[in-house]
Structures are given as C-alpha cells and as structure tokens.
Amino acid sequence: MEEKLILEDGIEVEQVYRRPETLTDVPYHYCPGCSHSVVHNVLMEVVADLGIQEQTIGVAPVGCSVFAYHYMNVDMQEAAHGRASAVATGIKRVMPDKLVFSYQGDGDLAAIGTAETIHTANRGENILVVFINNGIYGMTGGQMAPTSLPGMVTSTSPYGRDVSMVGYPLKITELVAQLPATYYVTRQSAHNPNAVRKLKKAITKSFEYQQQKKGTCFIEVVSNCPSGWKMTPVETIKYLEEVMFPYYPLGDLKVPKN
Questions:
Q1: What tens digit of pLDDT does each residue of 156-168 get?
Q2: Is 145 within a domain?
Q3: Is residue 191 part of a domain?
Q4: Are 91 and 150 in contact (CB under 8 A)?
Q5: pLDDT at residue 3, as a whole number
Q6: Beta partners for 184?
Q7: For the residues 185-212, what does the mean pLDDT come to?
Q8: Burial 137-151 (b: 16+ CB within 10 A, else e)
Q9: For the CA atoms of 165, 140, 236, 60, what is the dihedral angle to 10 degrees?
Q10: Residue 13: inside a domain, yes or no?
Q11: What residues have CB less than 8 Å from 132, skipping those under 6 apart?
Q12: What is the model's pTM?
C-alpha cells in the first residue's frame, strides 16, 4: 500500500514497499546476486498477505537454506541434511491445522534427501516443499550436485560433468509431478520482476491449497549461485536464461483438474 512519507530534509515521497513483519530486521548475508534473499522475501510476503504468520511453520535443513532461521519471522524447525520433508510430515501430522513448508536446496532435497522427498510426495503429505535448484553445492565449496548440467564445471568436475561416469542431472520435479498424490507441481525462478510475480502467485496458491487439504504442493525455483559458478551476478542471469532454463523449463508441471 502506498503511503506518504516525509524525509528528514522535508521532501515528501511515496513509500511503495515496506518490509513485512514476517521478516526479521536482520540484513541478508547471502552472496551478491544470490536468489535466496529474493525467495525469502517472496515467501514471507505471501505469509503476511494471507495473514497466516501465527499458523506457519517452516523447516530448513543443512546448506544455504539453513540460514532461513535468521530471516523468516515464523516458527522454524531445523532438520538433518535431507530430512526436511520427513520432519515437515511429522509436524503436519501432529498439528494438522498449521501451515507447514520445507525450504531446501538441490544438494539436500535431490541427493541425500531423495528418498524422503519422493515418499513424502507419494503419500501426498499436505505440505509445501520449496526446492531451490542452482545446480551446485553452493555452501560447501561448489561441488557437483545431482542437478549439475552435463558438462557443467564444478570444483569436483573441473572438466565438466561426465554423464558416462556420473549419470545425467536428476529432474526431481518431473518425477514428483508423476506421482498421483501430488496436487500442484511447478517450476519457477526469481531472476527478474516478472518471474518474481509468477513465483509469488505459485506460493500463494500452494498455501491456499494446503488450507483446503489438497495434498503435496511442490515448487522448484531454478536459481543462481554467483560464487559457486564463478560468475558475476549479471553473468549468472544470462547463464540461467541460456543454459539452465532450456534444461529445466519454467512453468507448471501439474495443476489441479477442477
């Protein structure tokens, strides 16, 4: 909502954005250009818009996502590496009236947490899974992840990912979309304003579906990692558009039939 503000020098301006109360008053520490801070903002804006702050519980495991506790002003629960969806399942079953989400990276959700992810979705647990896919282990040194692209250079694949040796990238969202118990599955990004609007719409729908007890909602966010990719923030946006998105196309993979 736009409001009139008077600055110290007496100049009147319009305030077009206000930090929601669902975010703590702590500056983000993420690397410049990283999408984590943008996704944090969008996620917590939705919680504020829907008025569900007191009902929301987030679960974040190991990785860059672990820092979500510092910034998201909702009840949060830590989980062991890869186990966030299992922990979220337990919370939701014990407190079914709460709105529960997990916030996980690709090295977590699509590697050590593959089993938990697939079985959570296969049971149709009534939670939201937010999956940040930057194709690399961003926190621990830029190692190759299950989602690293063919030929992608990482600290553990200095000559590029060799699919004959380590296999192809795991398209976890396509796998989840095929499971009968998932309700809404989508792949979004946060690399420009239009993408952010689409991401916010997807998160909003997911919480609304959870309130309606529809089952598992799964949102992949194809993200960047300037430090891990050894690129400037601007270069990572170009890499997303020219390399990542063709392999991980954006859009809805499964939508409600009714």
A1: 999 999 999 999 9
A2: yes
A3: yes
A4: no
A5: 65
A6: 217
A7: 98
A8: bbbeebbbbbbbbee
A9: 110
A10: no
A11: 35, 36, 39, 64, 65, 103, 104, 105, 106, 221, 223
A12: 0.93
